[in-house]
Amino acid sequence: MPPQQQRVALVTGASRGVGWGVATALQQQGWRVYGTSRHGNGPDGTVALTVDHTDDDAVAAAFAHIVDDTGRLDLLVNNAWASPPGFAGFTAKFYERPVSDWDSLIGIGLRSHYVAAVQAAQIMVPQGSGLIASTSSFGSRGHLHSVLYGVGKTGVDKMAYDMGAELAGTGVALGLLPGGTGNLPPEAPEAQAFSSANVDFAAFQAFLAARGLGSPLFAR
User: Fold this and answer.
1) Is the Cβ–Cβ distance between 99 and 32 less than 8 Å?
2) Would you call 131 helix, strand, or coil by DSSP?
3) CB 123 within 8 A of CB 165
4) Whole-angstrom Cα distance, residue 205 to residue 214?
5) CA–CA separation, 179 and 193 (whole Å)
6) Is the pLDDT of residue 191 over 50?
7) For residue 206, what pLDDT is reported?
8) Torsion of Cα atoms, 23 then 147 then 186 then 112, to 10°
9) What is the 8-class DSSP label of residue 165?
10) Please, which of 19, 61, 89, 168 could form a disulfide with 13 given CB 3.0 to 4.6 Å?
11) Per-residue pLDDT tens for 8-67?
12) Active-site residue list
C-alpha cells in the first residue's frame, strides 16, 4: 500500500503485552504503526522509537518525527506504564509499600497518557480527525492489584471522558480499551476484547470501525 494511503498510529508502551498486541494487529491490517518503548523494541513491521515517557521533550520529538514522516496521525493508543522500583507483583497492601510508588504509577503511568494526548490533539484537531484511545482496566471500577493501580486507571477513564467533552466538534474522538485483563475470568466483560498478552483483532477492528477508523485507507 502506498505510504500516503496508510492510516498512521502511535502505540505507546509497544514492547510487550497489550501494546505489542495492538501494534501487531494494526500493522497486520495495513496501518503504518509507530511504537514507543524505553529500549526501542517493538513488533516486526512497526517503527520502533526509543522514548522515555518521563521526558516531555522526548515525547514531543517522537510526535514531531511521525508528522515529519507521514504528515498526519490517525490513532494514538496510550498504553505506557511504569512499575515501581523493586516491584515484584501486586502482593503487598498499600500501607506496606513505599509512598514513592505514587511517582511511578501516577506520576508516570497516568501522566504519560496526558502528555501524549496533548501532543496527539495538537496534530489531530487541525486535521479535523483522529482517535485517542487509552488502556483502561476493571481496576477503575473494582479492586484489582492495588490502590494506586486503581487510582491510575480511574484517572485514565475520567481523563478520557473530560477530554472528549473538550474535543467535541473537532472531529477527534476518545476511546477506552479494556486492557490489563489477564487475571480476570474469560467470561468477564473486560476480558472479551483484550488480554494482557494478546489482542482479539476482530474486537479491536469493531472498536475502530465504530469510530470511523475501520479501514486502513482514508475515507475519500
Assistant:
1) no
2) strand
3) no
4) 6
5) 8
6) no
7) 60
8) -10
9) H
10) 19
11) 999 999 988 888 888 998 998 899 999 999 998 899 999 999 999 999 999 999 999 999
12) 149
C-alpha to C-alpha distances, 183 to 90, 138, 190, 195, 198, nearest whole angstrom: 12, 10, 11, 9, 13
pLDDT of 68-89, one tens digit each? 999 999 999 999 988 887 766 7
- Mapping DSSP onto H, E and C, the string for 12-77 reads CCCCCHHHHHHHHHHHHCCCEEEEEECCCCCCCCCEEEECCCCCHHHHHHHHHHHHHHHCCCCEEE
pLDDT at 208: 61
Q: Are 2 and 178 in contact (CB under 8 A)?
A: no
Residue 97 phi, psi dihedral angles, 5° rounding: -105, 155
Q: Tell me the chain's radius of gyration from C-alpha atoms.
A: 17
What is the pLDDT confidence band of residue 137, given thresholds at 50, 70 and 90?
A: confident
Spell out a b/e string for 122-143, using b for 16 or more CB atoms within 10 Å of the CB, else e: ebbeeeebbbbbbbbbbbbeee
User: Are the C-beta atoms of residues 104 and 66 closer than 8 Å to each other?
Assistant: no
pTM: 0.82
The predicted pLDDT at position 94 comes to 92
